Amino acid sequence: MRNIWFTIYTGSIEEYSGIANYRTLLEILLIPAIQDKINRDKKVQKIMLMFYSDLENDDIEYFKGLYYNKKPSTGIINISIAIKETDWNNLSERERKDFLIEKWKVLFSNLSDDYFLIDKSEVIKSLDELKNKDWKVTTSPIKKKLKYNKEVYTVVIDLSTERAQLALVRDSDEKWIKLKDFETWKIMTDANFKNFKLDGDILAFSYSSVFNTLFTAPEIFNLKEIIN
């Protein structure tokens, strides 16, 4: 079964500094935190916060009229979120996390109980726990190990609200070796690697996407210059 897509619509991402990175991280973090608590008989495919700078209050009554004790007709649940009184660009990282989690709580609090496999309060509790976690995700996009100069390395991508970092982690001492930083929200386009090839000291990553393969040069690194 496909993952539910938890996302945020903002219109222009330039209007809200860094929001695309927060959105991408939450799309990843909400899957293990919330997805298994959702009743999949509702056929929900996408759950979305929609920012509106001209709204003074979240449009809760309209939201409940659409979804309360009903099945979403298109598989999409969305709520209009008021951001008129919120100066996103001047919020601290802590305040941004709090704001986003509180708005997800608004959405889930106003869904009827038939949307959940457990008591709704447990969903809200999971959101509160997520608010207090470090919003970082480290994954290994390529399962095979890199062997170079008698050492073994794991390829990782480390995601945060600041950046997505492609790196090598040396198995023998867990030393972190940075290769390159990307925008977190661009990981599915700029860092969607499926494999690598080592030719002497030159490490080249190939892409999963056919589009990238055709139109983007491989990411290439000279390990002799990078690894001490």
Tell me the layout of helices and strands.
Blueprint (H helix, E strand, L loop, with lengths): L4 E5 L9 H16 L11 E7 L7 H8 L8 E7 L10 H17 L10 H12 L5 E3 L6 E3 L2 E9 L4 E7 L5 E7 L4 H4 L2 E7 L2 E6 L2 H6 L3 E4 H4 L2
Parallel strand pairs: 1-2, 2-3
Antiparallel strand pairs: 4-6, 5-6, 6-7, 7-8, 9-10, 10-11
Helix pairs in contact: 1-4, 3-4
Residue runs with pLDDT of under 50 for 5 or more positions: none
Report, as a whole number of angstroms, the end-to-end distance.
44 Å
The helix-strand sequence is EHEHEHHEEEEEHEEHEH
Helix percentage range: 25-40%
Biggest β-sheet, characterized? 5 strands, antiparallel
Quick recap of the structure?
Helix content is 29%, strand content 29%. By secondary structure, the chain is α+β, with helices and mostly antiparallel strands.
Overview of the structural elements:
The chain has 228 residues and is α+β, with helices and mostly antiparallel strands. Helix content is 29%, strand content 29%. It has seven helices and eleven strands. The chain has helices spanning 19-34, 60-67, 93-109, 120-131, 187-190, 210-215, 223-226, and strands at residues 5-9, 46-52, 76-82, 137-139, 146-148, 151-159, 164-170, 176-182, 193-199, 202-207, 219-222. The chain is elongated and about 65 Å long.
Key words describing this protein structure:
alpha+beta, five-stranded antiparallel β-sheet, three-stranded parallel β-sheet, single chain, 228 residues
